[in-house]
């Protein structure tokens, strides 16, 4: 139980840190961000004056002392007000994010689960059967693990999308012919369009998990408790899974934060290449148009999601490793 | 007690690491890239020079063809090699230095300082890197490569510092450290002369990881168009390739080489890291024939 | 009952080019205790692993045989077992208690699961309740409160973990229990308890014991037979009483003389100068010769074989009538009685 509270407390601190970083970033900018933003409205209908005021509060272009701005910022956050998007004016940032988030979440969660499942499973077998032909795959797996997401996305798009024409080139579903809804058509289209992006994430991600798990298996198999499990005459599968793998997988779980970090980066690159309308794609659009409110809102949401994922994994770790539970 | 018979005689070592195919391959790969980075740009001249027609495929004169503005892909590639490796190196050094300071001081001193440092590194770890970098990179206006290296290193120091910290904590209780403490040696001396030398494999491993991470992160950023515009890097080449419609026009010679270089260098560095792992954990070594 | 339950003949084990166990033979009587003593690196753990078929590459048995004699049924060639047959042989016939209990127990599984494991695998017909009952019984047997069955290894003390290992070894009522340094990681008081526990269980259930340790003093108490290992070979072998009162091999003498006697007069402590041989290097002659105070010329040329002297076996050229026709070195004869005298007279 103490473990649980500690973790919650830690993530509360991390969330606060993310909020605060978010608060300070625009104050790094030179020049007046509000003017920059408003200048984009020259050709369009000029926004109401409250918009300017909101922007000023958000970007610290005001005469209020810093801590008052901070409190105003926190207040806005607490009411769920992330401001109004510039690029998609007059849509509020929350709406834009709300539309993009599900695509990202869907793609990430499915890809991540497949990646982890495959990586841990294959790594377990590769480590268990050390000395077999599986070892010869190690160099190519190392190579796979070093492939940058962006490039792999380009490659897959080029070969499977363009060259062979097996898969669509962009989008989350067939915008032209299918409508959103719980129809088989829609779901089918979504899955079809999701293949290449998911493939990119999985191929590049699996290798890292595989290698990590394999090395840990090799290490763990030399432990006395695995030898003892064999000595007890237990079935090989039981030894491999309950004795070796269950211990070998632990570092992968503790290192989840780092791997998730890379995965999220890969997600952004993938969305950009495939024009997949998720938060990564939106982030880049926002950057391109100096849509600072949207940028900040996105960063915040992404951070919150990543923190939530990490918290979940940390709690999971508490379930699978009894040693941390009592230690608190 | 597992019965392990050590089979690594002095002749089986290369640079103090257990010699293996992995290590040799890794060093060769990294060596090649280092060579290209140093002398390549000198040999090919200005990467921005217009040397051919647009999007010409590779030929005897133009080994890697040309870009959509008629520039030599090969020339750009070699300059990019230097740029990427430089950033990787600088970021790696900075990140390692930072992780050392945090890890060693925190691990050795303990107490609230350690708690604070641990909190700092754990928070740094969980906050998503690329989004943060995207946002920061956009805000920080004039970004030369050094600024980039600095920003990237701000993110990648946290991982190695955790490993270093746990190592330091176990070293702290060794007898010779106790002896030094009791004989009145000041903390900083103990840290530098007694603890640091024993951290060498951990530091080396952390450094290699930091370089790999920096190169991947930098190329990711540049590929998205957020790189420091002045220095060509592999990621930057990918960005221009994508924007120059290399994909739809089938100009594979433009976008394949940069990514291939990233993967190849990453592989080489990883292989070296595996060798360091084998040094720290003899069980991973391949059974000698 | 003098029948043999386990016979080992000319067993040799190598790790790659290093010969870790060289030509070892012994017979273990049913219900008897064989103690195997030697310094670290002499090959005793390797021997235990080899007998239990637990060697991993690059370790492999290069020659010899290990035969298990069940009470009823045909002798089983242990080295020839494979796959299912080997799995079924394991634990039921020969069980092993490992050295470091913290490392021998799976940290993420409860004691209950690890005990149940044995039954789930070897006695599939047992119901869950029966498994639980039997597991608790086993814990009781070794002096652990059965209520702790749900604990995880890190929640138990060193002594308790060792007892759990012993309980686990008893689970299927094996004929032979091999103990590899079972008390090394424990403090002296707990060592005592564990030894007594093992002895008590042995009397209760009648299994034979192979007790491996570097601490000769433990063996002198509980073993029937004693084998002294050096450099991968057995250099002396006999009843423990014999070995104690009439040690013959210079190494044994050195070992015995290195124990300070708690009761006798004060004496200078003698260690054995030098260090154990590097098994990866081949040596001509006796492997103990470099450290032996009584070595003569022949010792560096010829490897001593285990010869029988009265009821014991010794591998030392001092007792070889052809190479050393005179009686063994007087100093050796004198020294060997030092220890015995102290123990006997005090």
Q: Compute the CA-based radius of gyration of chain C.
A: 21 Å
Our estimate of the beta-strand percent of chain A is under 5%
Q: How far do the termini of chain A sit from each other?
A: 7 Å
Spatially, the strands of the biggest sheet of chain C line up as 6-7-8-3-9-10-12-11
Mean of residue pLDDT values of chain A: 83
Gyration radius of chain A (Cα, Å) is 24 Å
Number of helices of chain C: 11
Helix content of chain A: over 70%
Multimeric state of these chains?
heterotrimer
| Main sheet characteristics of chain C | 8 strands, mixed
> Roughly how many Å apart are the termini of chain C?
34 Å
CATH topology of the largest domain in chain A: MetI-like fold
Q: Given the helix and strand composition of chain A, which structural class is it?
A: mainly alpha
Shape type of chain C: globular
CATH architecture of the largest domain in chain A: Orthogonal Bundle
What top-tier CATH class of the largest domain in chain A fits best?
Mainly Alpha
Chain pair forming the biggest interface = A-B, 61 and 60 residues
Percentage of residues in strands of chain C? 15-25%
Please provide the count of β strands of chain C: 12
- One letter per element, helices H and strands E, the order of chain A comes to HHHHHHHHHHHHHHH
What are the low-pLDDT stretches of chain A, counting only 5+ consecutive residues below 50? none
């Amino acid at each position: 139980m103490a473990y649980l509270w500690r973790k919650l407390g830690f993530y509360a601190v991390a969330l606060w840190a993310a909020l605060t970083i978010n608060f300070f970033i625009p104050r790094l900018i030179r020049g007046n961000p509000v003017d920059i933003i408003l200048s984009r409205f020259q050709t369009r209908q000029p926004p109401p004056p409250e918009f300017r005021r909101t922007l000023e509060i958000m970007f610290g272009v005001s005469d209020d002392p810093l801590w008052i701005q901070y409190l105003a910022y926190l207040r806005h956050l607490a009411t769920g007000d992330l401001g109004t998007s510039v690029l998609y004016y007059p849509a509020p940032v929350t709406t834009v994010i709300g539309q993009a988030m599900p695509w990202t979440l869907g793609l990430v969660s499915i890809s991540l689960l497949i990646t982890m499942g495959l990586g841990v499973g294959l790594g377990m077998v590769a480590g268990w059967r050390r000395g077999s032909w599986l070892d010869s795959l190690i160099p190519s797996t190392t190579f796979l693990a070093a492939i940058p997401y962006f490039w792999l996305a380009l490659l897959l798009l080029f070969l499977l999308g363009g060259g062979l024409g097996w898969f669509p080139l962009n989008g989350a579903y067939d915008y032209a012919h299918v409508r959103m809804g719980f129809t088989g058509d829609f779901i089918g289209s979504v899955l079809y369009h999701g293949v290449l992006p998911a493939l990119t994430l999985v191929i590049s991600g699996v290798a890292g998990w595989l290698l990590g798990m394999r090395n840990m298996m090799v290490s763990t198999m030399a432990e006395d408790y695995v030898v003892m499990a064999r000595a007890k005459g237990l079935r090989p599968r039981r030894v491999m899974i309950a004795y070796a793998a269950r211990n070998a997988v632990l570092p992968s779980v503790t290192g989840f934060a780092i791997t998730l970090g890379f995965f999220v980066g890969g997600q952004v690159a993938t969305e950009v290449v495939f024009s997949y309308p998720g938060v990564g794609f939106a982030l880049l659009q926002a950057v391109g148009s100096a849509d600072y409110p949207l940028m900040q809102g996105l960063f915040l949401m992404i951070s919150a999601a990543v923190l939530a994922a990490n918290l979940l994994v940390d709690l999971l770790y508490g379930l699978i490793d009894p040693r941390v539970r009592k230690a608190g | 007690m597992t019965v392990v018979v050590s089979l690594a005689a002095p002749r089986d070592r290369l640079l103090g690491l257990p010699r293996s195919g992995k290590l040799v391959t890794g060093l060769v790969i990294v060596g090649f890239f280092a060579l290209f980075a140093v002398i390549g740009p000198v040999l090919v001249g200005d990467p921005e020079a217009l040397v051919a027609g647009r999007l010409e495929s590779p030929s005897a004169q133009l080994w890697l063809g040309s870009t959509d503005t008629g520039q030599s892909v090969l020339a750009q590639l070699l300059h990019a090699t230097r740029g990427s490796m430089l950033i990787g190196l600088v970021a790696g050094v900075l990140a390692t230095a930072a992780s050392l300071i945090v890890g060693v001081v925190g691990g050795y001193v303990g107490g609230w300082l350690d708690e604070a440092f641990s909190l700092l590194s754990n928070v740094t770890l969980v906050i998503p890197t690329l989004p943060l970098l995207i946002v920061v990179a956009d805000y920080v206006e004039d970004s030369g490569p050094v600024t980039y290296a600095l920003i990237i290193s701000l993110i990648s120091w946290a991982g190695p510092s955790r490993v270093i910290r746990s190592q330091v904590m176990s070293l702290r209780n060794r007898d010779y450290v106790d002896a030094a403490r009791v004989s009145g040696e000041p903390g900083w001396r103990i840290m530098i002369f007694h603890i640091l030398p024993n951290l060498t494999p951990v530091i080396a491993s952390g450094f290699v990881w930091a370089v790999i991470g920096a190169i991947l992160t930098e190329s990711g950023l540049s590929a998205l168009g957020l790189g420091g515009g002045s220095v060509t890097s592999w990621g930057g080449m990918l960005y221009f390739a994508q924007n120059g419609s290399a994909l739809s026009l089938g100009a594979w010679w433009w976008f394949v080489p940069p990514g291939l270089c990233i993967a190849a260098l990453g592989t080489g560095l990883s292989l070296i890291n595996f060798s360091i792992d084998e040094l720290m954990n003899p069980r991973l070594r391949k059974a000698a024939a | 009952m003098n029948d043999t339950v386990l016979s080992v003949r000319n067993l040799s084990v190598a790790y790659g080019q290093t010969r870790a166990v060289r030509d070892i033979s012994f017979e273990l009587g049913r219900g008897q205790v064989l103690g195997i003593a030697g310094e670290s690196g002499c090959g005793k753990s390797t021997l235990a692993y080899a007998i239990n078929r637990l060697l991993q590459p690059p370790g492999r048995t290069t020659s010899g045989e290990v035969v298990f004699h069940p009470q009823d049924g045909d002798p089983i060639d242990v080295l020839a077992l494979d796959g299912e047959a080997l799995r079924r042989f394991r634990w039921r016939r020969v069980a092993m208690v490992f050295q470091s209990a913290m490392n021998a127990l799976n940290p993420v599984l409860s004691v209950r699961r690890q005990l149940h494991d044995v039954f789930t695998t070897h006695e599939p017909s047992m119901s869950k309740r029966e498994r639980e009952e039997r597991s608790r019984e086993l814990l009781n047997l070794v002096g652990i409160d059965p209520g702790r069955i749900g604990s995880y290894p890190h929640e138990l003390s060193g002594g308790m973990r060792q007892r759990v290992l012993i309980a686990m070894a008893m689970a299927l009522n094996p004929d032979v229990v091999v103990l590899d340094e079972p008390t090394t990681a424990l403090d002296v008081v707990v060592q005592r308890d564990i030894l007594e526990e093992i002895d008590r269980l042995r009397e209760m259930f009648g299994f034979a014991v192979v007790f491996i340790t570097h601490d000769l003093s433990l063996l002198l108490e509980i073993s029937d037979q004693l084998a002294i290992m050096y450099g991968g070979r057995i250099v002396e072998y006999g009843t423990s009483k014999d070995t104690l009162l009439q040690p013959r091999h210079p190494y044994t003498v050195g070992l015995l003389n290195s124990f300070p006697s708690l009761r006798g007069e004060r004496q200078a402590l003698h260690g054995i100068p030098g260090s154990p041989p590097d098994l990866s290097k081949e040596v001509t002659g006796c492997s103990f010769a470099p450290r032996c105070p009584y070595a003569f010329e022949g010792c560096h040329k010829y490897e001593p074989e285990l010869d029988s002297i009265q009821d014991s076996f010794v591998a030392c050229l001092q007792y070889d009538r052809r190479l050393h026709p005179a009686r063994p070195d007087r100093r050796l004869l004198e020294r060997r009685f030092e220890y015995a005298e102290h123990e006997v007279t005090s």
